[in-house]
Amino acid sequence: MSRRLPAFAAALLLALGFASATFLAVRQPLSLGDYLAVWGLKARAIHGSGELSAVFRVDPAGEFSHPEYPPLWPLVLAGTARLLGRYDELLLTLLRPLLLAAAAALTFARTRAPLPWRLLAAASLTLLPYFQTAAYTGYAEALLLVFVLAALFLLESPAPTPFTPVAAGLLLAFASLTKQEGVLVLLVVSGLLAAARRFRDTSIVAGLGVGVGVLPWSLYRAAHGVSGLADFDLDAFRPAQPLRALAALAEIALLPALPWILGAALLFALAPGVRRARRPLLLGAGAFAGLILASFAFARPDVAWLVAWTWDRLALFPVAALLPALFEAAAEPFGTREE
Amino acid sequence: MIPRSARRLLAALLAGAGLLALLADAVTQDLPAADSLAMAGRFWRAGPRGRLLNAPGLARDALFAADAVRAAAAWPADADAVLAIGPLVPPEVRERLRRRAAYVLAPRRVLLEPGSGSEVTLVRAPAGAGQR
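Output (structure tokens, whole complex):
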């Protein structure tokens, strides 16, 4: 019984996190923030017209709906509504627990440690503030996260098959079709595969990601007169802006984030084996954060405003990706980590 | 070299503290549990129209949203809408109403026009209006 107790407690925590996040998501219809202005608007446009091009029509001047954003999440919402027989914002909230369960299962699967630690890693994902915030229920990040975690799961596999890079490339193509951050993940993953001299994997992953994800949507929106990004532009380049973004981030988040950063650093410091084994993941998370920071050099709106409205959603990806490594690091001193 | 027992203790403390902090945030929700449950019950019992008009993102402008819902049910999907808003309506309200109208009336276009005073009217656009 005593050996089963930690696993039971971890499973209970996972159930609590999942129940709390699910209840927050499904207790009211989707209607808040960017769901209404961006994702839901486009989903209703697709559902009502049966045409993808309707996403450009509903906000003809492109003033608030970010017509350049990739269309997969609105397509998923509209497709689900079609299956349900009507566009019902309350029934669509049920997508959130499905995506959360998938993300938690992938976190469990990616964690190379004994059962209680794997369950704790999955539990911590469900307890992340992003999933405990009702306002984010209709946003695209949960779908993007599932694609990214699934791709990482495949690429981290100790026994890859010839099909592994194909599946990972397709998943990262879907990630790129979900949100622009998916393109950054594709870039980082391709760079790390190339640095590891996995050139075949690099060409397959990058080729599929660009060919199936980035390129088709870029061509489609260009054909509809939508080019460039609303919030970013080459002409807006100001090299000092990443520093301003960093200052804004420090002002908003440094104090609450400091214990987490120090705690994570200490866990990794205590686990040299995990540091070695997870070096590509740590580099990837750092590279993703660096690219996001660098992108602020091209920001059109006030960078402090942009950071304030996006930082927690952007932080979700590196944090969620690193959770397995963190719990492997916590498990390592117990000498039971599975290599 | 830190003894293995100390490393174990530190790792357990760090992981435990982190999980407890996350759990504490999760149980401290934005509404008391009873209110939250009542809210969920009301929405799941309501019909689609009631759900939409009382949804947190629309409830603040429920009368306006109700007009938009009626228009969405009555107008053809390819008809544009004209939203006239007067100069006395604060800019943030103007933008909020515009977004709500666009959402409820999608896939139709909602064309903004200047109104007079504190006017807020939503009408069907004449055929060919706002062609680009």
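The first strand of chain B starts at residue 81 and ends at 85.
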